[in-house]
């Protein structure tokens, strides 16, 4: 099985590669179309600017490749932080269109109380999930927090998509999953043992 982390000029590839290595999984960081086509699963890493990243993906001619791998071949894909936001229809960051795989919008976090709720939101937060989740299986959500670092967030998704939430100044989407498409607003690679469990759950998925 081959895991590919998409290279688009920014991201947290080293942290992710180290996390996968701890799990005994090799991964490659690449923008090579042939590598992506040969992959069994795909990671869109976090950290970066939505508009600049979509522009970089377009310039490297990866938009069509990724769309085909995800929507036609149904390969499992995990978006982390920015990577999750790239999966939405649109982001206010750079007034930028996303892939549109999940019908939702990414918006700037804009608390009424900026002293109590700093932006970016940096730190640990519990998440809540009312339904079954392949990605969160075996994780005690009421006990263990995940690590967040984000200035933009997703407030809601369409009803048929599985999702969890977290609370900062208000409720936001912590993760979503729709068939082969998975996104997490937090950073599992920085979330210790239960972050590793989440990554292991993703590695078990097959298209």
Provide an overview of this structure.
26% of the residues lie in helices and 27% in strands. The radius of gyration is 16 Å and the shape is globular. It has one domain (3-203): Class I glutamine amidotransferase (GATase) domain (Rossmann fold). It is of the alpha/beta class. The model has no long low-confidence stretch (mean pLDDT 92). The protein is built from six helices and 13 strands.
Topology of helices and strands:
Layout: E1 3-6, H1 13-22, E2 27-30, H2 33-38, E3 41-44, H3 50-59, H4 63-72, E4 77-80, H5 82-86, E5 90-91, E6 96-97, E7 105-108, E8 121-125, E9 146-150, E10 152-154, E11 162-167, E12 171-178, E13 181-184, H6 192-203
Parallel strand pairs: 1-2, 1-3, 3-4, 4-13, 5-7
Antiparallel strand pairs: 5-6, 7-10, 8-9, 11-12, 12-13
- Beta-strand residue percentage: 25-35%
Helix content: 25-40%
Q: Return the CATH architecture.
A: 3-Layer(aba) Sandwich
The H-and-E topology, N to C, reads as EHEHEHHEHEEEEEEEEEH
- Our Rg estimate from Cα atoms comes to 16 Å
Keywords:
207 residues; 7-stranded mixed β-sheet; Rossmann fold; 4-stranded mixed β-sheet; 27% strand
Summarize the structure.
It is built from six helices and 13 strands.
């Amino acid at each position: 099985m081959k895991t590919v982390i998409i290279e688009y000029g920014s991201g947290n590839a080293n942290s992710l590669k180290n996390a996968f290595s701890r799990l005994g999984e090799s991964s490659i960081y690449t923008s090579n179309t042939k590598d992506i086509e040969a992959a069994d699963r795909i990671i869109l890493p976090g950290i970066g600017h939505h508009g600049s990243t979509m522009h970089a993906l377009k310039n490297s001619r990866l938009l069509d490749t990724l769309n085909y791998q995800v929507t036609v071949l149904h390969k499992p894909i995990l978006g982390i932080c920015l990577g999750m936001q790239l999966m939405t229809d649109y982001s206010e960051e750079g007034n930028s269109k996303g892939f549109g795989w999940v019908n939702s919008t990414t918006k700037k976090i804009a608390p009424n109380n900026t002293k109590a709720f700093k932006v970016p939101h940096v730190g640990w937060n519990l998440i809540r999930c009312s339904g079954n989740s392949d990605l969160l299986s075996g994780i005690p959500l009421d006990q263990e927090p995940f690590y967040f670092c984000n200035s933009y967030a997703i407030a809601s998704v369409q009803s048929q998509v599985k999702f969890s939430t977290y609370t900062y100044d208000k409720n936001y989407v912590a993760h979503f999953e729709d068939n082969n498409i998975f996104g997490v607003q937090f950073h599992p690679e920085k979330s210790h043992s239960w972050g590793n469990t989440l990554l292991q759950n993703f590695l078990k998925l097959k298209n």
